[in-house]
Amino acid sequence: MVSPPSSPLCHLTPQSLSRARLDQGELLTNPLRRRPAWAQPSVLPQIQGQLIYNSFAQFLVKEKGYDKELLTVTPEDWDFCCKGLALDLEEGNFIKLADNGTVLRASHGTRMTAPEALAHQYGGKPWKHFPGDVGPAGRSGKYYFYDNYFDLPGALLCARVVDSLTKQNNGQKTFDFWKDIVAGIQHNYKMSAFKENCGIYFPEIKRDPGRYLHTCPESVKKWLRQLKRAGKVLLLITSSHSDYCRLLCEHILGNDFTDLFDIVITNALKPGFFSHLPSQRPFWTLENDEEQEALPSLEKPGWYSQGNAVHLYELLKKMTGRNEPKVVYFGDSMHSDIFPARHYSNWETVLILEELRGDRDGKPEESEPLEKKGKYEGPKAKPLNTLSKKWGSFFIDSVSGLENTEDSLVYTWSCKRISTYSTIAIPSIEAIAELPLDYKFSRFSSSNSKTAGYYPKPPLILSNNETLTTK
After folding, report:
1. Residue 454: which residues within 8 A CB-CB, separation 6 or more?
2. Distance CA 454, CA 442 (A)
3. Is the dihedral of CA 431, 433, 436, 439 positive or negative?
4. What is the mean pLDDT of residues 14-33?
């Protein structure tokens, strides 16, 4: 949201009071990853998670000759999925990091590493690829961080690939399967895949979108309209391509969804949209979902492809008549949204954190009592935002003490990054949609507190463990 010239701007700094005003703006961007951040429930539906998994598994089996066992997934298998894990691509190990970069838990494929073996392998030292406190949660040829729900089915698949290769090759130690995963991404999700009906994912979404997508709550649509009436400039920024974005938004928000936004940017290629400095990608005009003309600068509102935050900000200056319009950016990925928007553009950031809904008791929301379930109903896969039995809490974990010492609780690296780069964290946009537009949120930066910025309240596991070890 960008305040018009006649509106007072809210200056939010680390020195602000603990109840500093965050005007649910001044510039709103909602990244549309593979599903919109405003859709409820905001957690990736399990049926869509299965579709994502299948899109990769079938490619690996049919095109690359992997074991057919990859095609079968049990409900129990989904417990492996947990945001915040890193995959060592060469060793086939998944790891969970503490806030200082040491390894809290690890697995080889889906097989969890015993505490003794963990201590022997990692020795209580920072992981060799740890990016540090100020680095992005990078992705390279050596490792990959899983930080959003669209990625998690791929984490399960990669872990099972490691299991399969280890079994077939008598304890294989190094791996080279990532190139096949990348080929699967290209096959299923390349820019032309939606139009050409390539792969499995897009054809299925187009065939029956209602099976995979939730319509937007009326309260959220009303909130967006209120923001526009209040003089805010609303933007939609997504790395999805324009044809897929249009299908999703028409189903979720209605055929008139473009009336809600002043600027729509698709194929934004985040985080490069923020981080490619000083050589920014240009904005492109679109015609029939095809990129037409590269623009040296952005001169007016509209629907564009690619682009960069620097040229966008120059347009916002013109639209508002302000030299430094305030920006509040909503996103669900630390890697693609929150870190780059804060680190490179110094925007205020609101993290959509579904774990605020699922971590409170480790159980699926609205779970039926056992006595009410059907007699012949089998086990169901856990929602991806609920507690993993294998990996424990997304927010904290225990460090095994040495002999004759007690275990200690520490923050995870993922938890530390939330309080470092987010202004606030909310479970969904619906959670704030009915608040007054001038509601005053507590901020992470308002004090040294690790929990101040969680709205409406911190996750239960942090509330119960207020004093933790920070390494």
Report:
1. 353, 356, 424, 425, 462
2. 8
3. positive
4. 37
Among candidates 369, 446, 429, which has minimal Cα distance to 224?
Answer: 429
Q: What is the 3-state secondary structure (H, E, C) of the chain?
A: CCCCCCCCCCCCCCCCCCCCCCCCCCEEECCECCCECCCCCCCCCHHHHHHHHHHHHHHHHHHHCCCHHHHCCCHHHHHHCCCCEEEECCCCEEEEEECCCEEEEEEECCEECCHHHHHHHHCCCECCCCCCCCCCCCCCCCEEEECCCCCHHHHHHHHHHHHHHHHHCCCCCCCCCHHHHHHHHHHHHCCCHHHHCCCCHHHHHHHCHHHHCCCCCHHHHHHHHHHHHCCCEEEEECCCCHHHHHHHHHHHCCCCHHHHCCEEEECCCCCHHHHCCCCCCCEEEEECCEEEEEECCCCCCEEEEECCHHHHHHHHHHHHCCCCCCCEEEECCHHHHHHHHHHCCCCEEEEECCHHHHCCCCCCCCCCCHHHCCCCCCCCCCCCCCCECCCECCCEEEECCCCCCCCEEEEEHHHHHHHHHCCEEECCHHHCCCCCCCCCCCCHHHCCCCCCCECCCCCHHHHCCCCCECC
CA distances from 180 to 55, 59, 127, 177, 384 (A): 13, 9, 26, 5, 25
Does the pLDDT value for residue 40 go beyond 50?
Answer: no
Average pLDDT, the chain: 84
pLDDT band at 465, cuts 50/70/90? Answer: low
Surface-to-core class of residue 92, CB atoms within 10 Å of its CB (0-12 exposed, 13-18 middle, 19+ buried): buried
- Residue 123 has a CB neighbour count (10 Å cut-off) of 9
Among 114, 107, 120, which Cα is nearest to 146's?
107
Do residues 271 and 263 lie in contact, with contact meaning Cβ atoms separated by under 8 Å?
Answer: no
Burial class (CB in 10 A: 0-12, 13-18, 19+), 109: buried
Which among 339, 352, 356, 394 has a CA at the least distance from the CA of 99?
A: 394
108 has which bridge partners? 93, 111
Neighbours of 85 (CB within 10 A): 26
Distance CA 57, CA 164 (A): 13
377 phi, psi to nearest 5 deg: -75, 125
> How many CB atoms are closer than 10 A to CB 142?
14
Which residues contact residue 105 at a Cβ distance below 8 angstroms, ignoring those fewer than 6 apart? 95, 96, 112, 113, 118, 390, 391, 392, 397
Q: Does the structure show a pLDDT above 70 at 24?
A: no
What's this model's pTM, rounded to 2 decimal places? Answer: 0.86
Residues 86-108 have a mean pLDDT of 95
